[in-house]
């Protein structure tokens, strides 16, 4: 599913199979998920990314989708290889975050810089990108990742992005899972249990 250099192919397939298994548990679906996951688990770059090779750079949208799908897979199976991949992927995204723009560039270079062909950065992809970060913050207790995730959420809300384009809507829906992970982190790590998360009070827009 990734033979053409499109990480999202494996990402969407893995997410769909895991969702079906949640609704109707069956060993057949678990086995199918393992077969799909084998692709991203063996093709992750040493830096933690998955390449969108057709443009010669790294598509953060596809990175976020793949990372979020592997978190869902790890939660379902407990596969230690998936956990390792998720930790590496989250580190990659944390390094490519651009605080003053409140988001990630749509394309970046392997060394975490803006890709010259698509240098614009912003919060448009934040919901699908912060999903995996929230999960890693939850399972590791990493306060820096949790803060970055909250900042990403604040910036997206501040931007007021409300278009009805199907791709945009699908990204927001993926972000709902991340909200659950972020809340679980706050329940365990913060005295206020996450009061104010998503309200803009996290200070991310001024970072």
Characterize the structure shown.
The protein is mostly helical. It has seven helices and four strands, in the order ααβααβββααα. The chain has a two-stranded antiparallel ribbon with strand order 1-3. Strands 2-4 form a two-stranded antiparallel ribbon. Helix 1 (7-23) packs antiparallel against helix 2 (27-43) and helix 3 packs antiparallel against helix 4. The longest helix has 24 residues, at 166-189. The mean pLDDT is 81.
What are the key terms here?
207 residues, mainly alpha, two-stranded antiparallel sheet, two-stranded antiparallel ribbon, 7 helices, 60% helix, globular
- Assembly of the depicted chains: single chain
Question: What is the averaged pLDDT score?
Answer: 81
In whole angstroms, the N-to-C terminal distance is 39 Å
The SSE string, one letter per element, is: HHEHHEEEHHH
Helical content, roughly? 55-70%
Shape: globular
Set out the fold topology:
Blueprint: H1 7-23, H2 27-43, E1 58-59, H3 60-77, H4 80-96, E2 104-105, E3 107-108, E4 121-122, H5 126-140, H6 143-159, H7 166-189
Helix pairs in contact: 1-2, 1-3, 2-3, 3-4, 3-5, 4-5, 5-6, 5-7
